[in-house]
Amino acid sequence: MTLMWLREIRGGVALAARRWPATVGVAGVVAVMCVMLALTLSDVWAQVGLLRSSAVLRDQNATVFSSSYPPGGVIAPISDAVIADVANLIDEREAYTAVINNGILDNPQMYDDPPLILIGGSAPDLFPELALCDPAPCAMKGADRTDDPGSSVRVAGRRIPLTSTLPPGASFFDPYAGAQKLDQRLVVRLSATDIPRLIPEAREEAMTRLVLLDPASRTTDAIVAGNARKGLFLVPHSLTEQQTTAYRNSLTTAVMYAAAALAFLFLVFVAFAASATDAVDRESRSFAIRRLYGASNAAVAARISGFLAAGMLIAPLMLLAALALVAGAFAAHAAIWIGVVLVVVFVVLVFRVTLRVTTRPIGDLV
């Protein structure tokens, strides 16, 4: 029985091979479009993640700051009083901050990229998808890092335990920098008391990336005035008013792009279905002879499945599998879903073409 099924499938592949120019052309188009659609969907999912994180901050009535730095590249000296005020807000879970570009390890040779330093006890609640280690201080490495930094890293003069690995595809949302992909980075959570131990560049960046959660106006004014006295001018903005339009536009663009790619892929499937039906009609004489000699409907379906698999299933699934193995988590998940859709379309098409062949009178096929 198994040999019979294999023989029928092999016969279907041979049928596709006899029409190899059309088979290769359609298979190539379907494969490329499936990969393009998977990459597009991964971008859409990333944008949805950004909107979700942005919505959480908007619900908290968050205030962020744009900055004007001292002239001549001078690093603004953050006063101890401002640091103390910010530390109190962080300890009371009314603020958090991050250092994205200037986080320096005491042993920087261990990592090519600077770590993302996250300061604030409210961060695990605001970004639950990151599954952040707790309590601070602690560190996590990205899912794609294969090196072994040991059980701890040194930051701000402290040895920070490396406790876990971030989820695949993890991204940190910054109101101005957007999504920061973390698969290749180290994330270090520090407490508010560690801010004075950071290098001057990191302290300055921590002030510019400060996020206040539902602050009183006097709190915002005190931080602005305290930094202005040292030459760092911060302008507060309500995240509710500033980010909504930009991120909705970004999502709309990504969704329109995905819809266009999906529509084109649908047209490709329709064209291939028409081509497959035409090819089967041209082979109608051989199918009629097989049915006259007692071939079952299942045997006919097996031969048709081999023909269609050669043209629309094998090459796209191979490319999607390669994408799932080498790409990030979003692209991998998108590739899996596109593969599932492709298999469903394949099964429907096999059923449709088989029904067309087996329900027509043999005289019409000759």
Description:
- By secondary structure, the chain is of the alpha+beta class.
- 57% of the residues lie in helices and 15% in strands.
- The protein contains 13 helices and 11 strands.
- The radius of gyration is 29 Å and the shape is elongated.
- The mean pLDDT is 80.
Sum up the structure in keywords:
366 residues; alpha+beta; two-stranded antiparallel sheet; 13 helices; 11 strands; elongated
SSE succession = HHEHEEHEEEEEEHEHEHHHHHHH
Number of strands: 11
Overall geometric form: elongated
- The radius of gyration over CA amounts to 29 Å
Give the topology, please:
Elements (H helix, E strand, L loop, with lengths): L1 H17 L1 H40 L2 E7 L11 H12 L3 E5 L16 E4 L3 H4 L11 E4 L10 E4 L2 E8 L5 E4 L3 E4 L4 E5 L9 H9 L2 E3 L3 H12 L4 E6 H4 L1 H39 L1 H9 L4 H16 L1 H13 L2 H31 L2 H4 L1
Parallel strand pairs: 3-9, 4-6
Antiparallel strand pairs: 1-10, 1-11, 2-3, 2-10, 4-9, 5-6, 7-8
Helix pairs in contact: 1-10, 2-8, 2-11, 2-12, 3-6, 8-12, 10-12, 11-12
Kindly summarize this structure in a few lines:
The protein is of the alpha+beta class and 366 residues long. The chain is built from 13 helices and eleven strands.
